[in-house]
Write a structure and sequence with these properties.
Number of strands of chain A: 18
Order of helices and strands of chain B: HEEEEEEHEEEHHHEHEHEHEHHHEEEH
Largest interface: A-B, 55 and 51 residues
Structural class of chain B: alpha/beta
Strand content of chain B: 15-25%
Radius of gyration of chain A: 23 Å
Number of helices of chain B: 12
Shape of chain B: globular
Structural class of chain A: alpha/beta
Oligomer: heterodimer
Helix content of chain B: 25-40%
Helix content of chain A: 25-40%
Distance between the termini of chain A: 36 Å
Order of helices and strands of chain A: HEEEEEEEEHEEHEHHHEHEHEHEHHHEEE
Number of helices of chain A: 12
């Protein structure tokens, strides 16, 4: 491969925020070095919008409730009121949605849109920094191609927010980023304001397959040693910075530790700023990882894929770790061989946090159908869950696992107006997302083909502007 | 519930098939009889004895109540590798794939009928979801042809219903890349192969016959029924330009029974395909430009082709061929008629492979592959309640249902290995 590495020293020192805030700088001291935690800030702007009320709709509120003949009012990007037979404030656009369904926007916690975009040429393959097993230093957002046509397809499927993750080749794959699914010119334009960072880790077959003959790990025990050593290194790194800050506060003029981007991200996890999302299929491996989590005192926000969560749903509930799952994918490798259709409802039934995820630029377009299948499969074995309850798998639970539930993930007053209006009950194959609102702006309207977003790549190509 | 399942299990091992009557279901025959509000299907000796409106059952039949349910023909996996793969990645040989560095053949002679394993866990997992039959073929061979596929039954020890049922050929972008990268090279090779096969005028080469062609004897013999139009030729192709080349190929060789596989941009040449009488097996959910031969991808593809009069089949998958019902539902949501969506999973597949005299619809004399559904089979929340294959009601267990039943309750007083579901 002909990859030229740019010298990075300049960029690094430029990224150090020289600041005197916090500690008072004495004459004998150099300025305190602090790390900017948001060097690629969001420039997201919601679409232009008007005060809008959707009336007479069947509402799944995303936190387990269903309200028939509901009215939902939103303004300035936020949900203002939810009720029945509400007064219509002056200057409100009213949309009578009788016979239709309204839900919170779908949140996909597992997408590689932008980092593995279409067309999926080698030149676009930017999701796995498969050069060494621990690459906590890479950030998925630096790979995102915002022109990926997949964003607009996901939008037509009612997805308003998603987490873009690095791939699963590495023990630690790097930082993830949460975005609003409003296709735009830059990654920063899509970045979810105020969402915490995530970090991708991976169990099992992938790392050992990728590194087995590249210096290891070659085994699952090698994988676990790799995570543990990384956490130990991060602990040491935290100690160095703590020492530096302490000495500075004591009036000394210490030299700051050399910045290490890898350990900085790992330290961010141990300090509680960054959420771990871990690709893990097998039940026994997930339980080992929950012990590693306790050994090094961090929290795993979610296991991703979690094909065998049904075997340990009680332990997942106890440890408050979410499982982000498919409805029915199975068998493509040994660690997916025990996949069953009832995984999601069985996790839910145990009181653990269940999430429907895609990991697919196709699946992301129909996550409502994935939830529907799982719900029906659960009911057939006596797991009685209502549709309204099941919608938590698509909005509230993913929002919680991404640390954004205070902002979105339910149709409740004060939340961001991320909404999907469905042509029919979204637990039906035939239901279509007719209108998709992101922060109150109408981002997709199935009825108006001229309003559909067309990505740069699609301009001037066969099928430009076609129904997709 | 469990007892019922056990009972059903016993029947599936019955030595002599019993006579069955499926009574009272809303029955989509996919035959000239159309859809009957309340019908009775009589099954005898593995075949459908009659399909009639009403609930009348003569004596000597075990009644299976389908009242308030939907009854359809058994579904047929349109393009799968069932029986050729258990676990694809890092788990031993996969009979659907072939890689040998110095292999120089065209791949036409490959024959999956020797490789089908009816003990594959995928059989039960697929059949309890309403799939009773499937076309099974090699997927990845690195050769121009992927050889001869088979029609298989998803129950019983002798799964091959029709060996050497079709020939597969791949001309989509990824296959072209694997073959060196240029259609300008591959097409003349393909033309030459057909010419050599045609030159034999239907008579296979013996080992001592003189032959001056470039193909191996095995390959050229395998292509004889293809050029003679006795064996369907399933061609994987996506872009409109490639499809037009294939239509032209068929014009040069009018006997070819050509079937398109994939056909992502098929809708752009829909009327030409209809005119050339070329059916299509497709995945209606594929709507992204994965490569430059799929730029026009849209979920409207199935509906547009269907409306233009092209025979459309749906169901390209292996482990999850059971999801073809969902695929068809999404085709319907995007413009295909519901009945054509159902036909795309059964009758149309049977027609494509020339097995519609025996399969694909509920008609007197056809093999009794019948499914009773809890509701609309294209709805994601519905599922089969009863599956009858070759006249026998099958047991609704699979490896997956056993795993589920073992773990439904995690509170056990002994380790799970001792818990028999």
């Amino acid at each position: 491969m002909n990859i030229k590495l740019k010298p990075i020293t300049l960029t690094l020192s430029a990224a150090l925020l020289l600041s005197a805030c916090g500690s008072e700088q004495k004459a004998s001291q150099n300025p305190l070095v602090e790390i900017d935690k948001d060097p690629y800030p969001s420039t997201y702007q919601p679409l232009p919008q008007q005060k809008t009320m959707i009336t007479n709709v069947t509402l799944y509120d995303g936190v387990g409730g269903q309200l028939d003949n509901a009215d939902v009012l939103f303004d300035n990007g936020k949900i203002v009121a939810v009720g029945q037979d509400m007064q219509i404030p002056e200057g409100t656009v009213v949309f009578d949605a009788e016979g239709k369904w309204l839900t919170p926007g779908i949140i996909d916690v597992h997408s590689h849109l932008g980092v593995y975009p279409t067309p999926d040429t080698n030149s676009h393959s930017d999701g796995n920094e498969a050069t060494k097993p621990v690459t906590a230093e890479v950030w998925a957002e630096h790979s995102i191609w915002p022109q990926d046509p997949g964003f607009s397809r996901a939008l037509a499927g009612g997805v308003t927010t998603m987490q873009i993750l690095p791939g699963s080749a590495n023990l630690v794959g790097g930082r993830s980023v949460t975005i609003k699914n409003l296709p735009n010119r830059t990654m920063q334009d899509m970045k979810f304001p105020g969402a915490p960072y995530g970090m991708k880790m991976a169990c099992g077959e992938n790392p050992k397959r990728v590194y087995g003959d590249k210096g290891g790990p070659a085994t699952r025990m090698g994988n676990v040693a790799g995570y543990r050593q990384s956490w130990a290194d991060a602990q040491e790194y935290i100690g160095k910075w703590d020492k530096y800050r302490k000495e500075y506060e004591e009036g000394k003029d210490p030299t700051p530790p050399k910045r290490d981007l890898k350990l900085e991200t790992l330290a961010g996890v141990l300090e509680g700023d960054i959420l771990v999302h871990m690709h893990c299929y097998r039940a026994d491996e997930m339980v080992v990882m929950m012990d590693v989590m306790k050994e090094f005192n961090y929290q795993i926000a979610s296991f991703q894929h979690a094909v065998e969560s049904y075997k340990i749903a009680d332990k997942l509930a106890e440890n408050k770790v979410c499982s982000a799952m498919w409805a029915d994918w199975w068998g493509f490798k040994m660690e997916a061989y025990d996949g069953i259709r009832e995984n999601i409802p069985m996790v839910h039934k145990a009181g653990a946090c269940a999430i429907v995820h895609s990991d697919s630029d196709r699946g992301i377009q129909r996550l409502n159908q994935e939830a529907a299948k799982a719900l029906a499969d659960g009911r057939r074995v006596g797991i009685d869950i209502s549709k309204a309850e099941a919608w938590q798998w698509l909005s509230a639970n993913p929002a919680k696992s991404l640390g954004i539930f205070d902002k979105t993930g339910s149709v409740e007053v004060g939340k961001q107006a991320d909404l999907v209006l469905w042509s029919a009950d979204p637990f039906s194959t035939y239901a279509q997302a007719e209108q998709v609102y992101i922060d109150g702006g109408l981002a997709y309207n199935r009825q108006n083909s001229n309003s559909w977003p067309v990505q740069d790549f699609e301009l001037g190509q066969p099928g430009e502007g076609d129904m997709k | 519930m469990k007892k019922l399942m056990l009972l059903a299990g016993l029947f599936s091992f019955a030595v002599q098939a019993e006579n069955l009557a499926v009574v009272g279901g809303y029955t989509h025959t996919l035959s000239a009889q159309g859809s009957l509000q309340e019908a009775t299907i009589l099954i005898k000796d593995g075949r459908i004895e009659s399909v009639k409106s009403g609930n009348e059952v003569p004596s000597g039949y075990r009644v299976i109540d389908a009242k308030g349910k939907i009854v359809t023909p058994g579904l047929i996996g349109a393009y799968t590798a069932l029986g050729l793969v258990e676990v694809e990645s890092s788990a031993g040989p996969v009979d659907a794939e072939f890689e040998r560095e110095d292999y120089e053949g065209l791949g036409a002679a490959f024959d999956v009928s020797y490789a089908i394993n009816p003990d594959s866990s995928l059989f039960a997992i697929s059949r309890i979801e309403g799939f009773t039959l499937a076309a099974s073929a090699m997927l990845d061979t690195g050769t121009l042809f992927q050889g001869r596929g088979a029609i298989i039954r998803l129950a019983g020890e002798q799964p091959v219903v029709k060996a050497k049922a079709f020939m597969s050929l791949a001309l989509d972008n990824s296959s072209v890349e694997a073959l060196g990268g240029s259609r300008a090279v591959i097409w003349p090779e393909l033309e030459a192969a057909f010419e050599e096969a045609a030159s034999l005028k239907g008579k296979p080469l013996g080992v001592s016959d003189e032959f001056y062609g470039t193909l191996s004897r095995a390959d050229v013999n395998a292509l004889i029924p293809v050029v003679a139009g006795q064996m369907p030729l399933v061609v994987r192709a996506n872009r409109a330009a490639d499809i037009r080349q294939l239509i032209a190929l068929k014009q040069r060789h009018p006997a070819l029974k050509m079937v398109l596989l994939g056909a992502i941009e098929g809708w752009r040449v829909a009327s030409e395909l209809a005119e050339a009488n070329i059916p299509v097996i497709l995945d209606p959910e594929s709507n992204l430009p994965y490569s430059f031969d799929q730029l026009g991808a849209t979920q409207a593809n199935a509906g547009r082709l269907d409306n233009a009069g092209v025979l459309v089949a749906i169901g390209i998958n292996t482990h999850n061929i059971r999801l073809a019902t969902q695929h068809a539902g999404n085709a319907v949501a995007n413009g295909m008629s519901w009945l054509d969506g159902l036909s795309a999973l059964s009758l149309n597949v049977a027609k494509i492979y020339g097995i519609d005299a025996d399969y694909g619809s509920l008609e007197q004399g056809k093999v009794a592959d019948v499914v009773i559904w809890s509701g609309d089979p294209l709805e994601v929340m519905e599922a089969p309640l009863v599956v009858i294959i070759n006249g026998e009601q099958v047991n609704m267990d699979s490896r997956q249902t056993k795993l589920r039943d073992r773990y439904l309750s995690l509170k056990q007083d002994k380790p799970m290995g001792y818990v028999r579901p």
